[in-house]
Write a structure and sequence with these properties.
By secondary structure, the protein is mainly α. The protein has helices at 3-9, 13-33, 35-38, 40-61, 69-99, 102-108, 113-142, 150-174, 180-194, 207-213, 217-230, 237-261; strands spanning 63-64, 67-68. A two-stranded antiparallel ribbon has the order 1-2. Strand 1 and strand 2 form a beta hairpin. Helix 4 (40-61) packs antiparallel against helix 5 (69-99). It is elongated, with a radius of gyration of 20 Å.
């Protein structure tokens, strides 16, 4: 038995938990240390959304799906913040580890790939939930929304944060330069978020575009969360959860496979 195998054989549950805690602590410290870049900008952006689209324009729109327009957009804006920040946190943090060669120290250690993945995904989820809580607090200044189904609200936001943390991890693995980590958020993530039913119900769309919208995974996440908050949704709840769970399982399996093979990391 060589040195690496001997070290791996001694890497038990306690050592794995210590490794996971270390990565999570590093991620949380990073988020809080640069809070002016991680937590404040989404708060300012969402305040403007609530002020312009909710108060000024929403007052003229009236109701949508039987609820005031400003209440209707609250779940979508929270989910948009969670999606953007869970994705952005992990893609910048893990690519930073690649760029700074920190990831090589983890790869040569006896730490299992799933611990590395869980640590970084946990950081992305935590930042997404922190920003989501801040946006919810801001929403309470403009509306009187109450959670219709707290458990569904929590599970849908958690699943969404996990899915987009995994997607950000994959983006970071394939990225070779800083420009590569901005391409997908700019050209794919942002358009899908704005067309994912954040500001409107798909029942308003012509039949073709309503069906086309059903190919957008963010639509299912926004509607599952909206059902948890308001009790209304354009999508059957079971379908929405099936999409979120399937996306999490597929992206998680792909991330573990690529991490074991060292794709994008051993070049």
């Amino acid at each position: 038995m060589n040195g690496a195998e001997a070290a791996g054989s001694r890497y038990g549950t306690r050592e794995r938990l210590v490794s996971l805690y270390t990565i999570l602590r590093r991620e949380v410290t990073r988020i809080l240390r640069i809070w002016g870049q991680t937590l404040v900008p989404p708060a300012i952006t969402m305040t403007l959304y609530f002020l312009i689209f909710g108060k000024l324009i929403g007052a003229r729109i009236g109701e949508m799906d039987g609820v005031p327009y400003i209440d209707f957009i609250v779940p979508g804006l929270i989910m948009m913040s969670v999606i953007t920040n869970s994705y952005g946190n992990i893609v910048s943090s893990f690519f930073g580890a690649k760029f700074g060669k920190h990831v090589e120290e983890m790869l040569v250690s006896p730490m299992p790939p799933w611990v590395i993945l869980a640590g970084y995904v946990g950081g992305g989820v935590l930042r997404g939930l922190m920003v989501g809580a801040i946006v919810l607090g801001i929403a309470m200044c403009f509306t009187t929304v109450r959670l219709a189904h707290p458990l569904l609200t929590l599970t849908s936001v958690l699943l969404t944060a996990v899915v987009f943390s995994l997607a950000g991890f994959l983006n970071a693995m394939y990225a070779r330069k800083f420009d590569d980590i901005a391409i997908i958020p700019t050209f794919i993530l942002t358009p899908l978020s704005y067309l994912g039913g954040v500001f409107y119900s798909i029942s308003m769309l012509p039949a073709f575009w309503e069906q086309a919208s059903r190919g957008n995974p963010i639509l299912y996440m926004v509607n599952a969360f909206r059902y948890g908050v308001l009790g209304v949704s354009d999508i059957p709840l079971a379908t929405a959860y099936a999409v979120m769970v399937a996306a999490a399982v597929l992206l998680g399996a792909l991330a573990i496979t690529l991490l074991r093979r060292g794709v994008g990391l051993r070049s």
